[in-house]
Each structure stands twice: as structure tokens, then as C-alpha cells.
Amino acid sequence: MTGTPLTLYNSLTRSLEPFKPIDPTNVRVYSCGPTVYNYVHVGNLRAYVFTDTLSRVLTWKGYPLTHVINITDVGHLTSDADAGDDKMEAAAKASAQSIWDIAAHYTAAFKENIADLNIRTPTHFPLATDHIQGMIAFAGKIAPEHCYELESGLYFDVSTVPDYGRLARVADDEREGRIDPVAGKRNPQDFAIWRKSPPGENRQMEWASPWGRGAPGWHLECSVMSQHFLGPSFDIHTGGIDHREIHHPNEIAQNQAHCDCADTGATIWMHNNFLVEREKGKMSKSSGDFTRLQTLIDAGIHPLAYRLMCLSAHYRSELEFSSDNLAAAATRLKRLVMTAQALSARDDGAETADASRYLDALDAAVSDDLNTPRALPVLDEMLGDKKLSPATRLKTLAVFDDVLGLKLAALTREALRVKPAGTTISPEAIDARLAERKEARVAKDFARSDAIRDELAAAGVEVMDGDPLGWDWKSTL
Ligand code: AMP
Ligand code: ZN
């Protein structure tokens, strides 16, 4: 257990709170997972870099952890409303594929992204469709006192629980405008627990229930899966800031109805802010105009450069996604990896002075509501501290790697040179051509040297004479 007590920002109280686990031998965290009707974008992935930082910090601080990230493969409508198409059904219709195949494809792609970003696999990765019977049982328990049936489904009456919307703190009239009216709803904020299949329409995903054939509401699945894996009261629930207004207040209402008490389920509700783009605003999946992690990799950017970019902003601040920010993160990552490699080359195993002040500073930063932007300069300072031997610095770096997940000790300069998708020349061939160019320059054959540079440029490779980081070339694709 490290020294500084952990403080986390709780959206419920809108304040920083000391973290007091319900059971210090098993800290329980639930993170809302992606809806797999499309690829996740780098904005969604920011949410999981955040949860991974939380999970790494908890582990470093000595708490055994159970972490759940669900996969929403049913039930999320095309907006936060209760009317309209299910996102999964709509994607299946658009691509003429089975909804199950679509879900499996995008789930696999998400898991690949998670691995590329060095996000640790959670303890449980449940699919919503594996918990339908649990959802029907949960709905059955709360239905008599908290729900009412309309033609389109079973609805939750939010006036039946205490303090509905305490988490959102949005004035009712503001919220009302964002939810499509459904005729017969008692309160504008009432939401669907079970959505009946419209008569005459066959859904690919539908189940029999006491309220007819249909599918669960999206909010229901997280209440059910969190309770299944973590119990009715657990420590932390996470999600993007958009979930603070509708999805999470609705989960809380269901949890309260189920326990017949005021308990919100999780003690601390944490929300990451958005990845935004200048002019376009929040990166959004439903707009269809978004950037995937694979797009960055295809452009020759190492995925951990994106992780580093996320860590350089506090999770509660908006982060701008721009090529400048990404390039700066990629350069910073290269610098760090090259420093670590230089230390390894000089490592003779001899340990020197105590590096604990850097670990204390790391602890103080991350214990202050996961302040990773404050931890990064501590890392720079430690790596550059000549009073510490290479062995001591590398040993300390291993702790930073555990907490920040940047794999700095393992990455190599070569690994950072991700081959862009459109490159027509192999890195080995580039190196060979550069060696020839060097010879030509030594021989003062500038015509030949220029010709090699032009030939490489045509293959998407820019020769970088005099680069301060000592890189000989970069991709221009
Ligand atoms: P979804 O697949 O839309 O359910 O989103 C998965 C997660 O990504 C949720 O926690 C969202 O709140 C979060 N999220 C969505 N868009 C962004 C964004 N632009 N920046 C950060 N997090 C986001
Ligand atoms: Zn959720």
C-alpha cells in the first residue's frame, strides 16, 4: 500500500472524496462498455484509458480489484430516447448482416484496441445478451411498484424513487427537451425497462417476457450485470460524462427500486470528459464521422502515443484531438523510449541512491484524483536524474510503467516505427537506401544523394537530416 491516501472526484456529490472501499480486500469497479454496432473511436477509447488508469492506480495502491467492462450488444437506441431503432438492429439492417455477426466483429475489434493501448483485460467482460434472463427477473421484481405498461413497453416511473436525477443535476425542463415524448408516459424522464417488439415486426434479437416479445432497455443491462458480478453495493461506477445525465441516473433509479432503499449501487460515480475536435465538437459514433485507433496505426502512429496523449490531460478535462497534439505525444513517447534504451545500454546492475522521492511524487499525483499530467514531468525528472544509476532509474521506471501503462522499458525505437498502411517500401529497404545515401554524401556525390532522397519521398518516406531526436526518416503518409 503506497503512502498518500487516494482521493477521487465523485460526480454524485460533485466533490473530491477520500476513497474508502466497502471491502478493502476486494475493490469492485464497473465501467459502462461500448455499444458494438460500429467500431469504437478514439474518443470512446479515452474512456477506457481512464478506467485502466483507475484500475492500475488501485492495484498499485494495494487493493485487490474486480473490474467489469460490459459489452452492449443489445438495447441501446439510436438516441437516449425510448422510441426509435435499436442501434444494433439498425446496423444489421444497413449492412444486411446478422446482428450477432456484427456484434462479434466489433467486439473483437474493441478488444484488439484495448490490447494495443495496453489496457488491462478486466476481470469480467460480459455480453448483455448473456444476461437477458437476469434482466427479466430484475424487471419482474421492480415492475409491481415502480413500472407501468404501455403499448410500446414496460416503463419505469421515476417519481417512485427518492431524489431521481440527483446525479444529473439538470433542471427538469432542460432534460425534458432531450427525450422524445412517448404517449402515455407519466413523467417525461420515465424510461423503458422492456421494449416490446412492434406487432408484425420481427427483430433479430428478441426474447419472450411477461410483457411480451421484445428486448431490454439499455439502462437495465448495467444494473443487472453490475449486480451479478459485483453485488448490489460496490465501490466505483465509471462512464463518459454523457452518462451522467440519463444512463447513470436511470441505473441508480433501478438500483433503488430493486433494493427498496436509497442506496445508489456504487458509492462513487466517476466520469471522464470528452475527446473533442475543433469545430466538430465531441467525437461521436452516431455521427459516423470519427477516427479509429486503426486509422492512427495505419498512419504510422504507435497506439501508445495516443495513450500518452490521453494521460497528458486530466480525465475530467476536455481533450482536443488534433494532429498537432498527436504529433507532440508521438515525439514525447519517442524521447522517453530512447532515454530508456540509452539507460539499458549503460545498465551495469549497480544501484545507487534512493529514488523514493520520485515514487512519492508519482503517488501524490495519481492519488490526487488520478492526476496523470502531474505524474509525467516526475517521470521526465527521474529519468534525467544523473545522481541515480541507470539500474536504479530503470527499476523506478518499471513502477511508472505499471501505473501509467506506457511500456517504456519494453518498447524499442524500432517498434515505434509503425509501418503506415500505404508504405510501398520496407523499413529494411529504407535503411539500405539511407546507407547508400550516406556513402554518396561522403563521396560528395550530391546528385546521387538527392536522387535517393527523391526516390524515398515518392515512396512516402521523408529523410530527416539533423533531426534532434536522431531519427533518420519519417513517414509522410
Ligand atoms: P458508447 O459505445 O457510445 O456506449 O460509448 C462507450 C463509452 O465512451 C462511454 O463511456 C461513453 O460515455 C464514452 N464516450 C463516448 N464519446 C466519447 C468522447 N468523445 N470522448 C470520451 N468518451 C466518450
Ligand atoms: Zn452502462
Write up this protein.
- This protein has 477 residues and is an alpha/beta fold.
- The protein folds into 3 domains: 7-282, 3-Layer(aba) Sandwich (Rossmann fold), CATH 3.40.50; 299-414, no CATH class; 420-475, no CATH class.
- It has 16 helices and 15 strands.
- The protein has a 4-stranded parallel beta sheet with strand order 4-3-9-10, with helices on both faces.
- The two termini are 46 Å apart.
Structural class: alpha/beta
Number of helices: 16
The CATH superfamily label of the largest domain reads HUPs
Name the quaternary structure: single chain
User: How many domains is the backbone divided into?
Assistant: 3
Q: Biggest sheet, strands in spatial order?
A: 4-3-9-10
The CATH topology annotation of the largest domain reads as Rossmann fold
Approximately what portion of the residues adopt beta-strand conformation? 5-15%
How is the secondary structure organized here?
Elements (H helix, E strand, L loop, with lengths): L6 E4 L4 E4 L8 E5 L10 H19 L4 E5 L17 H9 L3 H18 L15 H15 E4 L2 E4 L15 H5 L14 E6 L17 E3 L1 H13 L3 E7 L6 H13 L6 E7 L2 E3 L3 E2 L10 H6 L4 H9 L7 E2 L2 H24 L9 H12 L4 H12 L6 H15 L8 H4 L10 H16 L3 H13 L2 E3 L9 E3 L2
The structure holds adenosine monophosphate (AMP) and zinc ion (ZN).
